[in-house]
Amino acid sequence: MDTPSNHTMHQEQDESKRTYRHWTTLEDRKLLELRKSGMKFRHIAEQLSRTPISVEKRYRKICKGYI
């Protein structure tokens, strides 16, 4: 029988879910603009097609001056 094992299927799913996209300058500007207007991280995440935790981490990184 030529069916992939459960381990292989889960591994492929995990790899497809966790693809990192670098932040662009435009996304950084949009993030800062939306946050300054009082928008919550989860709403900004929807606007930028990113996860809320990714948005929050990026915001804190920008504010600390690491960019």
Overview of this protein structure:
This protein is mainly α and 67 residues long. 67% of the residues lie in helices and 0% in strands. It has helices at 6-17, 25-36, 41-48, 52-64. The longest helix has 13 residues, at 52-64. The chain is globular and about 30 Å long.
Provide a brief overview of the structure.
The chain is mostly helical and 67 residues long. It has 4 helices and no strands.
| Radius of gyration, taken over Cα atoms and rounded to an integer in Å | 17 Å
Mean pLDDT: 85
Question: How many H/I helical runs?
Answer: 4
**Structural class assignment:** mainly alpha
Strand content is under 5%
Alpha carbon gap, first and last residue:
52 Å
Helix content: 55-70%
Q: Note the overall shape.
A: globular
- Sketch the topology as an H/E string, one letter per element: HHHH
The description of the largest β-sheet is:
none
Unreliable spans: none
How many beta-strand segments?
0
